[in-house]
Amino acid sequence: MQKNVIGYGSIFHKEDTTHIKNISNTTFIGEHELFYAGRYAIKHVIYCILEYKNINQIWLPNYYCPYVKNWLEQEFNTIKYYDIDPFDVADTIDWSLFSPNDLVIANNYWGVKENKIPNGDRPIVIEDHSHGWLSKGCIESKADFCIASLRKTLPVPLGGIAWKPEMGTCKIPLKPLKNAGLNAEINPMHLSWDIIDNAMKTKATCTNNEEKIAFLLGYSQGETLLRNTQEIVPLLAKHEADIRKNLFKDFNTYKIANLTFILKTLEPSQTFKVIIGNNKFPFGLLIAFKDWELFTNFKQFLITNMIYPAELWPQNRIAQEYKFLLNIHIDFRYNEADLEYISKTINQWTLQQSYINTEQEL
Ligand SMILES: Cc1ncc(COP(=O)(O)O)c(C=O)c1O
């Protein structure tokens, strides 16, 4: 693999993970089901709930993945949005907004927020741990149901999970998935898995720009199939085995070590803030901005230097002070030399920016 061609970030490449140990506590999960993606896990859980209870409104956080918002809006016509500041670790959900006949999706925002579920009459709560799989909030969740998109943490082409946390008290069962009866050969999820799997293999061996374009194209074709498929397709046994092999791997230990390393070398900035969380480990190096122009300038600077951050998420306009977030990947793929490169590049932008600011003040 050549980092000077593929750069840093974006999708995982195919990599052997047998050397990565499992976490010790895997019993928090209780009943669970695996899926091709996180959105199917959400949909499945909502239909399980609807079989037992009439729901007035389904509430999603305002600041949330726009593709999932759109996808869920195609499926359910009772969706409403509530406000929460994703960039203030201390800000919590205002539960007084909801009735006991509502359903609330709470996000753990990159593993740094902990949602306290109220006692007494309250809505059903589904917690989304897509960017905090195996974080403290995920393992200690007391929500009625939890879900996660696994492909954001595990190096697998696709993957999602729904579970009933052992510490929850909800009596509604999580039903096993029914076979959708789609023709195996034209099944869009099998196709999407194969296309992304190939893209990951191409990325792992990529030595030139043409191959780089090929893996990026493959990945976006696989992603389009997801966006256009509403039906929940059960996993093929071989795909399930690939996900299960990686399900409890302790990928977070690498993130903690890498974040600790990089934070020691980052120059302080007047322009952005790094979101860390109290005694928690975030999804990656999370950099939040107030200003759209500075945000896009920074993003472009990183891309020019072959660092490909994830924008989490576009198309969200919120009233809070900080509004835009980039995640710079610092997972198990990276060694100290990579982290030094990432840090040096960010510092270069910070210094350039403070120079521009000084010039303007003179
Ligand atoms: C917070 C969050 N939840 C759920 C999902 C859905 O996951 P998937 O893409 O695996 O369907 C995503 C991303 O796409 C996400 O960002």
**CATH fold name of one domain:** Aspartate Aminotransferase, domain 2
- In total, the number of strands is 13
Each distinct ligand: pyridoxal-5'-phosphate
What is the correct CATH architecture of one domain? 3-Layer(aba) Sandwich
Strand count, sense and barrel status of the largest sheet are: 7 strands, mixed
- SSE pattern: HEEHEHEEEHEEHHHHEEHEEEH
Helix percent reads 25-40%
Strand fraction equals: 5-15%
The stretches of 5 or more residues where confidence is low (pLDDT under 50) are none
Count of helices?
10
Radius of gyration: 21 Å
Strand order of the largest sheet: 2-8-7-6-5-3-4
User: In CATH's first tier, which class of one domain applies?
Assistant: Alpha Beta
**How far is it from the N-terminal to the C-terminal residue, by CA?**
47 Å
Q: Which structural class is indicated by helix and strand composition?
A: alpha/beta
The average pLDDT value, as a whole number, equals 93
Shape: globular
- The CATH superfamily of one domain appears as Type I PLP-dependent aspartate aminotransferase-like (Major domain)
